[in-house]
Amino acid sequence: MNASDISVIDTDVLVIGGGTAGPMAAVTVKEQDPSLDVMLLEKANVKRSGAISMGMDGLNNAIVPGHSTPEQYIKEITIANDGIVHQPALMAYAQRSFPMIEKLDSWGVHFQKDETGDYDMKKVHHLGTYVLPMPEGHNVKKILYRRLRRNRVQIENRFQATRLLKDADGRIAGMIGVNTRTAEPIIIRAKAVIMATGAAGRIGLPTSGYLFGTYENPANNGDGHAMAFHVGADLANLECFQINPLLKDYNGPACAYVTGPLGGFTANSQGERFIECDYWSGQMMLEFFKELEGGNGPVFLKLDHLAEETIQEIETVLHTNERPSRGRFHDGREIDYRQNMVEMHISEVGFCSGHSASGVWVDETGATTVPGLYGAGDMASVAHSYMLGAFVYGQICGESAAAFAKGRGEMPSLDQAFIAAELERIQAPLKVADGIPPAQMEYKVRRLVNDYLQPPKVTRKMEIGLQRILAVREDLPRLQATDPHELLRALEVQSIIDCAEMAARASLYRTESRWGLYHYRVDLPEQNDTDWFCHTRLYKDDNGNMAHGKRPVAPYLVELGEEKDAYQKLRVRKAANA
Amino acid sequence: MKRYDDPELQEIAERLADPDPGIRRVAVLALVDSGEPEAAELLIQALKDEDAAVRQEAAKVVDEFDAEDIADSLLAALGDADEVVRNAAAHALADLKDPGVAPPLLAALERSDDPFVVAGILRALKPLRVVAAQTPALTRLNDDDPHVRREAVGVLGWLKAEENLPALIDRAKSDADPEVRRAAAGALVYAAPERAGPPLMVILDDPHWQVRCEAAIGIGKLDYRAGLEPLIAASHDTTWQVREKAAEAMGKLRVAAAVPALGECARDPMSNLRKAAIGALGAIAEPECRPFIELALDDPDPDVRKLARWAQSQLDNAA
Amino acid sequence: MPTATQRTSVPVIVDEDKCIADKGCTVCIDVCPLDVLWINPDTGKAHMRYDECWYCLPCEADCPTDAVKVEIPYLLR
């Protein structure tokens, strides 16, 4: 098939990714101007896609009047991220977080309320109150789907975007992709594009060795990060890996935010708390890692001191929400929260701003560095966003993209040579005979990530890892797909290789340690604010290579002042990476 | 049979008229994907299907539709013979959130005796916060079925009206069902402290620990300082969860008289209680808190130590 | 490069007596985020074609006839 044979679909705004941020972005564009055409493209099916396919059990970062303030929240997130944040973006989130809760509430999302109908906020952190449970939060996706239909957003399921398109002026022009069931190519021309492709959660290998037993939904494999790189957008702080505490082998969240307010906690083998850090951060993960590897390890979720009524409440929430197969996992091992502590571990590495701070760079309007291209949710760089951040930045991007599309007259022109080359790349694995299956190549590169890039990071090991990852890249001409489904996986592997290379290069670039375990370099253990109090950039240079740079931290809107000392007192007396 | 302009919807309508109930059932699933407002009509039709499996399927997807379009059918479905259908209808009704549906809900409540139906309607009325629901809810506070009484408490709690306090206090003190007592105790916090405080002090002696917890939380939320003595007593409760809530509540009252009791809590074997106690001492931040806080700086539990450091800085700031 | 096929025990099990894919139902196939469920051409019923499961449960939860059962993948069990 030639490029000229593919019909081009036009839309004003294209949203790539139908999980959490994407549907909110698409609905927002329609709310801004119902006359705008909006298309929502999803690799799976919007009904059950993304990180919250089975719902979510709570908000971890709700800023509700009377319980916390945007200023307080920004201080805490700034400190938890060792100062490297874009505060204007945090402020936009913080100010919109409560109106978004109210909007979702009016749509029918169930937040926990007290007996008088007020939000039932829970204090989990020491300085602010940010946790709002959602014990009946399993219907979030259904509600989003209802809104999409009501606003007549055009939904295209089972299409994988593979590359973004630009016009001659360097502005976004749309995307090219492929149907995951037929391998038919698709070209969508758009005046503005919003990416909401989720985390890059399939870079590392879970300890079980099962390729799809990842912490993140494995459909979130980093396609968006790779596409952003190839279209020339900046990525930020990729060395700040996501690593999360989880139930060992099951590899799903233990949900400290669910069990914490009810009295459960993370314990060592003595059944005692050991975490000094207050806010979810790389520092906390470093403490977790040390206990896991130390003489008091491993680490457990401890609930066996709680009352029967409380355990039942926890089971109801954990076994019906977010990752509901937790219950049958425990059953299989005859683990009962009443009698046993549950063994925990740490996840494989990934890029996910929902829990850390890395991703495609966006500012407080959701704009990337490519005009007309916006990013929201786990793939965009706003730190510690979680689910509510995905909704808020979905909304922000929807507003920004609607305005951009309306300000742009004609549909953009397309680069036919680029499209022809991309079509060639997409179809190449189908033309290979007796080649390497995608799963084999994927296993190899992800195993290399574990062996060489998983923190604690060692310079020489990372250099070797990079060379080995590049060697896998050399094998790409032999990558073979025997059907459209394997083609989907073959294209995903290419994104995974891109992400693995970015992870290695970004980690080597920042020659200091920061963010606790996330970027703990054993041979460069100190935090170096003189040289590295900045965001790092990773981008494609004029020769198509990965290049690096520094981006200054924007002046703070909220000074830390005494809070920083108070927080440090709470946190650790020891040096960050001692 | 009605004809639909949208070809996909027309095709679904034809399948919904198929003699094979299996085909009709699958057609219901397809309705969910239609963006046409008329899809709701077909859903209503399916809710009345002669085959229970088709009705169940329709009931399972009612929450995919905007409930105001199908409110009447949902009310009818509350009385369905099949439990799955009735449950789904009750859940969907609770999501209505449109005050416009209050009149039909209230009318249905008037003529219903089935406890399941009544509880479902009350749950749907609660978030609407309509004054007209007050009288029927007060009546249902005396229903034989505890689920009905619990939902009636919910309606009244959300209304936050002064005149409903005596009835709620009565339920909180003397209902036979602990969940009704707990919910009613939790609802009292909308009242003025001097009205809700005294009954909450009594409820601190409830036989059920979760009700006692709720009472302690309430006294703290209300900042009812006259409740200190019973809170001190509750800080010796046999159940640590009650001791924990009592300690937290004393921290909210911020009175120095609570310090000795909190000091005892700060030595409790249960670390969750020590956390609550040190947190409360930090909130009170009076000089007599200092010895307990300094002792906690070496607590074996890091959360307690963290809070002790925070509490120490509160003391230093207050000094 | 020669290749081999290896057997693998899959986590999603479909009860063919309950499955109504032959009536046009494709719910489990539609909702799977990893697109691993397909119609078996021999039986007309759904089955797991690719061992790429996140044990996330929409296929089981959304199946109208309770025909789908998701087990924890063997490597994790």
TrEMBL record, chain A:
<dbReference type="InterPro" id="IPR003953">
    <property type="entry name" value="FAD-dep_OxRdtase_2_FAD-bd"/>
</dbReference>
<dbReference type="Pfam" id="PF02910">
    <property type="entry name" value="Succ_DH_flav_C"/>
</dbReference>
<dbReference type="GO" id="GO:0005886">
    <property type="term" value="C:plasma membrane"/>
</dbReference>
<keyword id="KW-0560">Oxidoreductase</keyword>
<dbReference type="InterPro" id="IPR037099">
    <property type="entry name" value="Fum_R/Succ_DH_flav-like_C_sf"/>
</dbReference>
<feature type="domain" description="FAD-dependent oxidoreductase 2 FAD-binding">
    <location>
        <begin position="12"/>
        <end position="386"/>
    </location>
</feature>
<dbReference type="InterPro" id="IPR015939">
    <property type="entry name" value="Fum_Rdtase/Succ_DH_flav-like_C"/>
</dbReference>
<dbReference type="InterPro" id="IPR036188">
    <property type="entry name" value="FAD/NAD-bd_sf"/>
</dbReference>
<dbReference type="GO" id="GO:0009061">
    <property type="term" value="P:anaerobic respiration"/>
</dbReference>
<dbReference type="GO" id="GO:0009055">
    <property type="term" value="F:electron transfer activity"/>
</dbReference>
<dbReference type="InterPro" id="IPR030664">
    <property type="entry name" value="SdhA/FrdA/AprA"/>
</dbReference>
<dbReference type="Pfam" id="PF00890">
    <property type="entry name" value="FAD_binding_2"/>
</dbReference>
<feature type="domain" description="Fumarate reductase/succinate dehydrogenase flavoprotein-like C-terminal">
    <location>
        <begin position="445"/>
        <end position="558"/>
    </location>
</feature>
<dbReference type="GO" id="GO:0050660">
    <property type="term" value="F:flavin adenine dinucleotide binding"/>
</dbReference>
<protein>
    <submittedName>
        <fullName>Fumarate reductase/succinate dehydrogenase flavoprotein subunit</fullName>
    </submittedName>
</protein>
From TrEMBL, chain B:
<dbReference type="InterPro" id="IPR011989">
    <property type="entry name" value="ARM-like"/>
</dbReference>
<dbReference type="InterPro" id="IPR016024">
    <property type="entry name" value="ARM-type_fold"/>
</dbReference>
<dbReference type="Pfam" id="PF03130">
    <property type="entry name" value="HEAT_PBS"/>
</dbReference>
<protein>
    <recommendedName>
        <fullName>PBS lyase</fullName>
    </recommendedName>
</protein>
<dbReference type="Pfam" id="PF13646">
    <property type="entry name" value="HEAT_2"/>
</dbReference>
<dbReference type="InterPro" id="IPR004155">
    <property type="entry name" value="PBS_lyase_HEAT"/>
</dbReference>
<dbReference type="GO" id="GO:0016491">
    <property type="term" value="F:oxidoreductase activity"/>
</dbReference>
TrEMBL record, chain C:
<dbReference type="InterPro" id="IPR050157">
    <property type="entry name" value="PSI_iron-sulfur_center"/>
</dbReference>
<dbReference type="GO" id="GO:0046872">
    <property type="term" value="F:metal ion binding"/>
</dbReference>
<dbReference type="GO" id="GO:0051539">
    <property type="term" value="F:4 iron, 4 sulfur cluster binding"/>
</dbReference>
<dbReference type="GO" id="GO:0005737">
    <property type="term" value="C:cytoplasm"/>
</dbReference>
<dbReference type="Pfam" id="PF12838">
    <property type="entry name" value="Fer4_7"/>
</dbReference>
<keyword id="KW-0004">4Fe-4S</keyword>
<keyword id="KW-0479">Metal-binding</keyword>
<keyword id="KW-0411">Iron-sulfur</keyword>
<feature type="domain" description="4Fe-4S ferredoxin-type">
    <location>
        <begin position="44"/>
        <end position="73"/>
    </location>
</feature>
<dbReference type="InterPro" id="IPR017900">
    <property type="entry name" value="4Fe4S_Fe_S_CS"/>
</dbReference>
<dbReference type="InterPro" id="IPR017896">
    <property type="entry name" value="4Fe4S_Fe-S-bd"/>
</dbReference>
<protein>
    <submittedName>
        <fullName>4Fe-4S ferredoxin</fullName>
    </submittedName>
</protein>
<feature type="domain" description="4Fe-4S ferredoxin-type">
    <location>
        <begin position="10"/>
        <end position="42"/>
    </location>
</feature>
<keyword id="KW-0408">Iron</keyword>
